[in-house]
Amino acid sequence: MGDRYELKKPFPNLPAQAQPAVCRILDANLDRAREGLRIVEEWCRFGLDSSELAGECKQLRQEIAKWHTQDLRAFRDTLGDVGTDLSHPQEEERAGIQQLLQANLCRIEEALRVLEEYGKLYHPEMGTAFKQMRYRIYTLESNLLGYQRQQKLLRSHLYLVTSESENLFAVVEAALQGGLTLVQYRDKDADDDVRVETAQKLRQLCRRYEALFIVNDRVDLALAVDADGVHLGQQDLPIAMARQLLGPHRIIGRSTTNPDEMRRAIAEGADYIGVGPVYETPTKIGKAAAGLEYVRYAAQNASVPWFAIGGIDPTNLNDVLSAGAERIAAVRAIMEAEQPTLVTQYFLSQLSRLQTLRALKAHLPQSHVQSNNLTS
């Protein structure tokens, strides 16, 4: 940018008495945008280990900095700024990383809009430059949320699928307190107004515990409550159509019961798949169990995250894990448990133990593995 943006005759169409105020507005919002970007950049760098997202934040910061000239800084009057004491209770706390990032992304977008409008008074190219940056921030926001969702999905090994319950919210929260990071709201019978209200409350719960929230079947409901994604059955909307409606950054899962359905779901772009039902379950009335053989097939052939599902509980968990599962979905085992937190913790501890054993098995010589019986 350099000398090309040095002003020879500032504010040709603005009264002299208004010029200091506009400079202060530009200075304050340049600071605000750069600070917000630095906060987002730090999470992209250290929290997500994403050089691509961190790099985009850094590039935007540098482009904004080029506009932050000494001419503008000279008008800064912190002591005389009547807004320094203004605050809001929501600014005093952050419920989690998601809220922190969202707040700062909104802060950046607002600042860029101010810079776009007042910049038109300051320099003929400033309005256009900040309009383009604002659209880049919208893209960054979408990519960041999508990346976070995918990373959280990869780290999630236990998936709670809800069933009707008088204590629905208490059970889900108890499971979240036990470390659960992935919840699907499933209710085939409730009226839509009830589903919307329930889904909104569950989404708020999941956000509070920084867990992913997925809606069963209904793309429209997922959009209405700003869910992280949708889970589709074999008879539901095609994945391509769901993707078109949901956009590229939400999660789409698909139920599968055999290798053909698995291959098709992966080819169509499912972010994860359900594998089952492993055992017969009242959740899938009239559907024969796919059995452990399908679990073994998935372990060898699935190229996306997959969750063994269907009748899995603490009594048969080890059989499912021994067949090759690394992720499981549970319904009754948690929803009907007397102590959902403890059951959740048990599932997670067994899944974590399995990961540790398989990691050791992968790194130790085969003879040592066999002699120590480190099998899955």
TrEMBL record:
Residues 24-142 form the ThiD2 domain. Binds 1 Mg(2+) ion per subunit. It catalyses: 4-methyl-5-(2-phosphooxyethyl)-thiazole + 4-amino-2-methyl-5-(diphosphooxymethyl)pyrimidine + H(+) = thiamine phosphate + diphosphate; 2-(2-carboxy-4-methylthiazol-5-yl)ethyl phosphate + 4-amino-2-methyl-5-(diphosphooxymethyl)pyrimidine + 2 H(+) = thiamine phosphate + CO2 + diphosphate; 2-[(2R,5Z)-2-carboxy-4-methylthiazol-5(2H)-ylidene]ethyl phosphate + 4-amino-2-methyl-5-(diphosphooxymethyl)pyrimidine + 2 H(+) = thiamine phosphate + CO2 + diphosphate. Mg(2+) binds at residues 217, 236. 4-amino-2-methyl-5-(diphosphooxymethyl)pyrimidine binds at residues 184-188, 216, 255, 284. SUPFAM superfamilies: Thiamin phosphate synthase. One of its GO terms (cellular component) is cytoplasm. The keyword Phosphoprotein does not apply. Residues 158-334 form the Thiamine phosphate synthase/TenI domain. Residues 137-376 are annotated as: Thiamine-phosphate synthase. Residues 1-136 are annotated as: Unknown. Its EC number is 2.5.1.3. GO terms for biological process: thiamine biosynthetic process; thiamine diphosphate biosynthetic process. Its cofactor is Mg(2+). It is an enzyme of class 2 (transferase). Keywords: Magnesium, Metal-binding, Thiamine biosynthesis, Transferase. 2-[(2R,5Z)-2-carboxy-4-methylthiazol-5(2H)-ylidene]ethyl phosphate binds at residues 281-283, 311. It holds the Pfam family TMP-TENI. Gene3D superfamilies: Aldolase class I. Pathway: Cofactor biosynthesis; thiamine diphosphate biosynthesis; thiamine phosphate from 4-amino-2-methyl-5-diphosphomethylpyrimidine and 4-methyl-5-(2-phosphoethyl)-thiazole: step 1/1. Belongs to the thiamine-phosphate synthase family. NCBIfam families: PRK02615.1, thiE. This is Thiamine-phosphate synthase. The gene is thiE.
